[in-house]
Amino acid sequence: MTGGHDDHPGQPGPDEHGSHGSHGSHGEEPLRELDPADLHRAVDDIAATLHAYVDTAAGVRGEFGAAEADVDPRVLALESHVARLNATLYQLIHDRLGMHAELTGMTVDGHDAEGDLEDDGHDHDEDDLDTFHLGFVVTGQAHSPEVTLTSVLGLIDEAGAEIARRLLDQGFTVPEWGSARGGPVLFDEDEDEDDEEPDA
Questions:
Q1: Minimal CA–CA distance to 82: which of 108, 43, 135, 55?
Q2: Measured distance CA(67)–CA(55) in Å, rounded
Q3: How far apart are CA 67 and CA 179, in angstroms?
Q4: Domain ranges for the chain
Q5: Any long-range contacts for 192-200 (C-beta under 8 Å, 24+ apart)?
Q6: Rounded to two decimals, what is the model's pTM?
Q7: Using one digit for the tens of pLDDT, what is the confidence trace for 158-181?
Q8: N or C end of the chain: smaller count of CB under 10 Å?
Q9: Strand partners, 117
Q10: 111 - beta bridge partners?
Q11: What secondary structure, in 3-state letters, does 18-48 show?
Q12: How many CA atoms lie within 13 A of 114 on its CB side?
């Protein structure tokens, strides 16, 4: 993400993405003899839950149509569980490594190595290509202590995937989409427009 904190009032402050001082996991020195066993356990938990999700989703889809399967309580419960586990891993990486992992975003990249849209068999007019953004300012505490502000990104990811699917169902092409915390996702088109703006 680009842009300073003044440009994005909702962007995480120094306590989250800025300087963390010179001690512990947020310091400038390398973390030597670090044991990542707890990180691997968190990843194993996510992997096991994803396998359970696939098994459950396949079973539910065998009972119902796609629309009903999407909102089946068993599927929704596992999706929420995955989001919570993702949040746990994010927090664990932050606490143990002092890093801010971007692991839950999803980007459908339809660009080739030169950054141009790949040929999908359709003619694309540049005038027909645009970017759209949806933002939320979230505060307060959730009813469940397991649901934190960090886990909100998982909910945004789920909603983004549904929006992308519905756009594709309508016949649109979605070369890229993504979610982010603290500021809007910048796509290639946005960055190109910024580069073309003359200096003030």
A1: 43
A2: 18
A3: 24
A4: 37-103, 107-200
A5: 194/2
A6: 0.50
A7: 888 888 888 888 888 888 888 877
A8: C
A9: 111
A10: 117
A11: CCCCCCHHHCCCCCCCCCCHHHHHHHHHHHH
A12: 4
